[in-house]
């Protein structure tokens, strides 16, 4: 029995994320303008997302955490990357039940990247962030775990929505890439001029 979230849940997560993103951009243009660290921006995004999640009837018992690195039983969160190597993981921001909902523990995973100048080292970091989002949104790893409603996997997976969130100061735009089931589904570009930057 390998049930995976249906399209309705994916659409709900996209809707929640986009509302939180609008609130974040409306309330924190100054942070974007001053080019503060990704951690600071993720912290403020956490608040915008938490405000929506905690008041949602269906998802009100979920948590929004920044740089969360533990699985149930205090184990380090791990994924298997595209080469199926074990990799410890700390995702920039996640929405999850902290192991409280076996049916659907993980909702949203977000990796945020600030691009100030283009270089090969930063491109490697971007590729790793995208690889992490792909792994987090898979339903399983090479079928080594199947959802049974009883146990959570050893490797973190089954996020309904993965987002690669890039704040690109070079091209003066924000790019949001949406991932589902280990695949890039859609991307949206927001020009800085559209948000008043």
How many distinct folded domains? 1
| Tally of separate helices | 4
Structural class: alpha+beta
How does the major sheet shape up?
A: 6 strands, mixed
Share of helix, binned:
25-40%
pLDDT below 50 for ≥5 consecutive residues: which ranges? none
String of helices and strands: HHHEEEEEHEEE
Radius of gyration, in angstroms, nearest whole number = 16 Å
Give structural notes.
It contains 4 helices and 8 strands; from the N terminus they run αααβββββαβββ. The chain is globular. With 197 residues, the protein is an alpha+beta fold. A hairpin with a 4-residue loop joins β6 (161-168) and β7 (173-180). The strands form 2 sheets. The protein has a 6-stranded mixed β-sheet, with helices on both faces. The chain has a two-stranded antiparallel sheet with strand order 2-3. The protein has one domain (7-195).
Key attributes of the depicted protein:
4 helices, 25% strand
Sum this structure up briefly.
The protein is of the alpha+beta class and 197 residues long. It has helices spanning 7-27, 29-34, 38-53, 120-136, and strands at residues 63-66, 78-80, 86-88, 93-96, 106-115, 161-168, 173-180, 183-191.
List the SSEs and their pairings.
Blueprint: H1 7-27, H2 29-34, H3 38-53, E1 63-66, E2 78-80, E3 86-88, E4 93-96, E5 106-115, H4 120-136, E6 161-168, E7 173-180, E8 183-191
